[in-house]
């Protein structure tokens, strides 16, 4: 059982006094646990939190979204911290621009929001590799998310750096952080308490001195595996759950502590090739009503989902591999473009009924960023993807992407066939989508989602055999995440005979503008370039219908993945990315599709047939 002693942590003014009082520098107050209640400045306090992640929202829009969260009735913001973004190379850290964690937390405080901080090192979140940096997989002897000393050393270095950014913003030090989460839903993964204790120690050693908590499902195995003595335990569940049963499960495991839902799933995310998820606003609001009427704290997951730009969307792996879409709208109360929805209104009205005496809801901020249409424009220039290859790594056998120092994007494997062959090409594991070609002629594709590993081919003697593999996102949940290396994993055979003598070309596609574009027609995977004018830039959704599969770059920024199988058919482009004259580059793996684009005011989702 968890100790009932109070956890001191200091803080801020009660939320009723508003944004200006909250922003006062140096104000120190108390936040602690007393029995089954949270106390803020000695008075009962119910955490009304919502998740929003700084890398998924343009920095220019942080305050707009925060103000909408306050207008919905939330008093707290919850965010993960993303290791793979902050340490893209070992010991090389980045907390600048959209990754300025400390500024994000300061803005939350200035906008009247407390903070629940979830630094990981594992975060899940439908995020690439659950937030772990891909370079961890370059060492075949390293075991992530375990007590392996190599992994713990790397994680502790990262956590120390997070502490330098954020530990000084805990509530006892005049900042907004109420509590810090230890790991994330570890009970759904394992039961190694030595590992969990090590994560707890690294968080404390990084300078965090306030309230710590864990979050898990309410099942007995989840709670026994993921919790720690002396650390508050909260539970996660969705708006379709039996709430009474969820908290009864928690009470059987641990009683006499505050009840809190650490993730109230009021929406859901999408996988490529599956349906677009929405949930009933009334059902989501009913769960909030049930919790508030009983004084139970909660965290909406998500309050605002935003976008997993670039290569940062992750994947699930149950019966088969399920890559996530770039859109992380989540059917949240605030949609991908930052617009309040019917779910927002329903939850706001419930919260309004449960305000503390003297507390009022702020009005919605005026002048919400608009969305706008962009007239259709042509992408007239093109460049074959394989027209610009780096110096290859030579290897007798194919090597995974991580073993050649690459984290994201595409990778090309090339060998030459001494004899003409008409037979079956087989790859042990394609991770995750492969285009097979010979001398520039496409032979077919292999899709990990569908369990495909074989392709019948007919190749003349002396021909080059190319296998272009796309990393669609590392698994972010479950036991298979620990070794989800990308590219080709294992051997390649042709009619049972192993192919050797490979050239391996990393294609992270970080600078697409350097490809040799021209007006000449192209074949196979290619980059297409065009421009459009925007006299008054506004948020827009690029309509990718008619294209095949690939990624889109707008003024050099990777806007994410598209795929004709859906359900996502558009890519959200925020106005801060745009200027009067704009360049768009589209990588498409297939031939014969559309070569023009337009911007829409709203997203398009299509449920696959």
What does this protein structure show overall?
This protein has about 600 residues and is α+β, with helices and mostly antiparallel strands. It folds into 3 domains: about 15-350, Alpha-Beta Barrel (TIM Barrel); about 375-385 and about 515-600, Galactose-binding domain-like (Jelly Rolls), CATH 2.60.120; about 390-505, Jelly Rolls. It contains 10 helices and 32 strands. The strands form 7 sheets. The protein has an 8-stranded parallel β-barrel with strand order 4-5-6-7-8-9-10-11, surrounded by 5 helices. It has a 6-stranded antiparallel beta sheet with strand order 16-25-17-22-19-20, with no helix packed on it. The protein starts with 17 loop residues before the first helix and ends in a 9-residue tail after the last strand. The model is unreliable at about 1-25 (pLDDT under 50).
Report the radius of gyration as a whole number of Å.
Answer: 25 Å
Can you give the helix content as a percent range? 10-25%
CATH architecture of the largest domain: Alpha-Beta Barrel
Shape, principal axes of CA atoms: globular
The CATH C-level name of the largest domain is Alpha Beta
**Strand order of the biggest β-sheet:** 4-5-6-7-8-9-10-11
The structural class is alpha+beta
